[in-house]
Design goal:
It comes from Acidovorax bellezanensis. By secondary structure, this protein is α+β, with helices and mostly antiparallel strands. The chain contains three helices and ten strands, in the order αββββββαββββα. Strands 1, 2, 3, 4, 5, 6, 7, 8, 9 and 10 form a ten-stranded mixed beta sheet that branches.
Length: 160
């Protein structure tokens, strides 16, 4: 694609990709905005600028929506570890909620919004250079809950 085509099809409006991490044990929600140089107010809240790689959820097909994020460890690693320690120390089993919002022209209401949950196993990983986060629409609080046995519903054992 040449420069002329790029600028002909690219919207001149600003686009902001915002990520919010929320949990009852957190001091406050972690609000981040991708690839900006200074804090940005989106939806009435100040979001801190962080360089990040975002693989947004796939919107086509029957696949489970999955968001993959990567942040430089030097920028967010210490704060992530501190907040995860608060969750562990509180003994909370509630999932960490991730909200992914894309603001296009109106900075008060996102044009696209996803509500996702960080998985209990492998949801947040640290390596020497980056913090990687994987979130899906599957709420881990609901995954392991089974149906309660009710003889009126499950009549198969009446024969025994």
């Amino acid at each position: 694609m040449d420069k002329e085509t790029f600028w002909a099809v690219k919207s001149p409006l600003p686009q902001y990709q915002a990520i919010v991490f929320e949990h009852p044990a957190f001091d406050a929600p972690i609000r981040l905005v991708a690839d900006q140089f200074e804090p940005v107010t989106l939806g009435g809240h100040v979001h801190q600028p962080v360089p990040m790689t975002i693989k947004p959820p796939d919107q086509a097909g029957d696949a489970t929506a999955k968001l993959t994020l990567a942040f430089p460890r030097a920028v967010v690693g210490r704060e992530f570890k501190r907040q995860l320690k608060l969750v562990r120390d509180a003994g909370s089993r509630a999932p960490i909620v991730v909200r992914y919002d894309v603001y296009l022209y109106d900075l008060t209401i996102p044009a696209v919004s996803w509500l996702l949950y960080i998985a209990e196993q492998g949801g947040v990983t640290f390596n020497a250079e980056a913090v990687q986060v994987s979130a899906t629409v599957d709420n881990p609080m609901l995954k392991s809950s089974g149906l309660i046995y009710d003889p009126a519903t499950f009549t198969g054992l009446e024969i025994l």
